[in-house]
TrEMBL record:
Underlying gene: Tlcd1
Name of the protein in its database record: TLCD1 protein
Source superkingdom: Eukaryota
PANTHER family from the UniProt entry: CT120 PROTEIN (PTHR13439), TLC DOMAIN-CONTAINING PROTEIN 1 (PTHR13439:SF5)
Organism: Grallaria varia (variegated antpitta)
GO biological process terms, semicolon-separated: membrane assembly; phospholipid homeostasis; plasma membrane organization; regulation of membrane lipid distribution
Keyword Lyase: no
């Protein structure tokens, strides 16, 4: 990519950061459930989750429709390219940068360190994809995870708001599990297999493979937390009495 292309991509990423900044300000003006208003420590987390929800809806549907519209991209994960995919990666890079800054500037780094690690991995990987134009299809596949995140975020919002509707939480719990398999575990497993089998372990390929393997470990850890929390609560350790106000766990 030439200087002009890099400058254009940087502008797209910067524009995305600004969009999510505007969404954050909008979230501040939205009404909050009584359970959130009564616990000051939850206000930041609620607003942050609303912005995360917006990104999940937009990026998840975007990735799904882009791959649905151009399935031929899946035949060339390393060199396949589409304008839609490039824009999607710029858009999500902006979100990850915005969320990182939101966590740091609101002094949530200690309680949200897992997010910071995840975002650092995503930003560095996406920047390398934007610059080289390679492995954009892999990024599109990974961003299918945002479809799963729609229901994961709904789960966390329901828990925080103490909505008196167990049936709604129960229904989302099972939908979330199905989506976790379909849009998080399955694409991740396929990409891991593909990188280990077909991608040369050098340069950008080695860097992305290392990121992918670390992400594998994180996803399996989050999956075990999800199962313990929603399906095997008796196996949870140290959960009783824990105050999670303000904390942004990927799964709690």
């Amino acid at each position: 990519m030439g200087p002009g292309g890099r400058a254009g991509s940087a502008a797209l990423v910067g524009g995305s950061v600004a969009i999510f900044g505007a969404l954050r300000r909008l979230a501040l003006a939205l009404p909050r459930p009584a359970a959130v208003r009564s616990r000051p420590g939850r206000v930041w987390r609620w607003r942050n989750l609303l912005v995360s929800f917006a990104h999940s809806v937009l990026a998840g549907i975007w990735a799904l429709l882009s791959l649905w519209h151009s399935p031929e991209l899946l035949s060339d994960i390393q060199e396949g390219y589409s304008i839609s995919g490039h824009l999607l990666v710029c858009f999500s890079s902006g979100y990850f940068i915005h969320d990182t800054l939101d966590i740091i500037f609101n002094h949530q780094s200690r309680s949200s360190w897992e997010y910071l690690v995840h975002h650092a991995m995503a930003i560095s990987a996406f920047v390398s994809l934007i610059i080289t134009g390679r492995f954009l299809v892999a990024a599109m596949l990974l961003l299918l995870v945002e479809v799963s995140n729609i229901f994961l975020t709904v789960r966390m919002l329901l828990k925080m708001s103490n909505v008196p509707s167990p049936a709604l939480y129960e229904a989302n719990k099972y939908i979330n599990l199905v989506m976790y398999f379909a849009f998080r575990l399955a694409p991740q497993a396929y990409l891991t297999w593909y990188f280990l089998r077909y991608v040369e372990v050098q340069g950008q390929g080695a860097f992305l493979a290392a990121n992918l393997l670390l992400l594998d470990a994180m996803i399996l850890m989050y999956f075990s937390r999800l199962l313990r929390s929603d399906f095997f609560p008796s196996l949870r350790k140290g959960a009783a009495g824990r105050d999670v106000d303000g904390e942004k766990f990927l799964i709690d």
